Amino acid sequence: MDLCHVPATREKGWYLALMAPNVKGPNYAWLDPSRLYCHPQGLQDCVADLLQPFQGDAVDVVAGIDAMGFILGAAAAATLRKGFLAIRKAGHLCVQTAAQPYTDYSGREKVMEVRTDAIAPGLRVLLVDQWVETGGTMRAAIELVERLGGVVAGVAAICIENSEGGKWIQERYKCSHCVPPLLQPRFDQHQ
């Protein structure tokens, strides 16, 4: 992996080629973006592309979704000079929490939690995750923020698939992702 090479022309999404395909089988995600995070310019350009639609929007805090959303969320928060809120899988927070059950992309039933003292009524939260496949995880995060009185300022992910859940989110919230329209069908079909 060449972490120094930067293409002469950097069009939106150039860094998507840094991602690695699944070689471990069906119990894993079909694509691994972690190599993209290792590339300094790739990570910077990815975060810039994700945040571009929100320039000038009111955002009070960036929330990253457990666990890979922590990487992009923390990078986005640092870029925006905002605080970072971790939305966790159940059982990891030792403080008072609000919980929301959901079904993840693999069909597993899970519970997500957020600390109850972090979201005040009217707080504008930018939700960030690595990927929105079925939308179950992101929708649970949205429900937590809104139940605590927060406002979803937007949703950002490397890819928001055109699944039923992905479309539901895109129809209701301002969204940003990095996949160019011509490549979207390939991402939706996991190719």
Features:
alpha/beta; transferase; 191 residues; 6 helices; PRTase-like; two-stranded antiparallel ribbon; Rossmann fold; PRTase_dom; seven-stranded mixed beta sheet
Written description of the protein model:
The strands form two sheets. The protein has a seven-stranded mixed β-sheet, with helices on both faces. The protein is globular and about 45 Å long. α2 crosses α3. The protein is built from six helices and nine strands, in the order ββααβαββββαβαβα. It is of the alpha/beta class. The model has no long low-confidence stretch (mean pLDDT 94). The chain has a single domain, classed as Rossmann fold, CATH 3.40.50.2020. β3, α3 and β4 form a beta-alpha-beta unit.
Condensed summary:
The protein is an alpha/beta fold and 191 residues long. It is built from six helices and nine strands, in the order E-E-H-H-E-H-E-E-E-E-H-E-H-E-H. The protein has helices at 34-38, 40-51, 69-80, 136-147, 164-172, 184-188; strands spanning 20-21, 31-32, 61-65, 83-89, 97-103, 109-115, 124-132, 151-160, 175-176.
Secondary-structure blueprint of this entry?
Blueprint: E1 20-21, E2 31-32, H1 34-38, H2 40-51, E3 61-65, H3 69-80, E4 83-89, E5 97-103, E6 109-115, E7 124-132, H4 136-147, E8 151-160, H5 164-172, E9 175-176, H6 184-188
Parallel strand pairs: 3-4, 3-7, 7-8, 8-9
Antiparallel strand pairs: 1-2, 4-6, 5-6
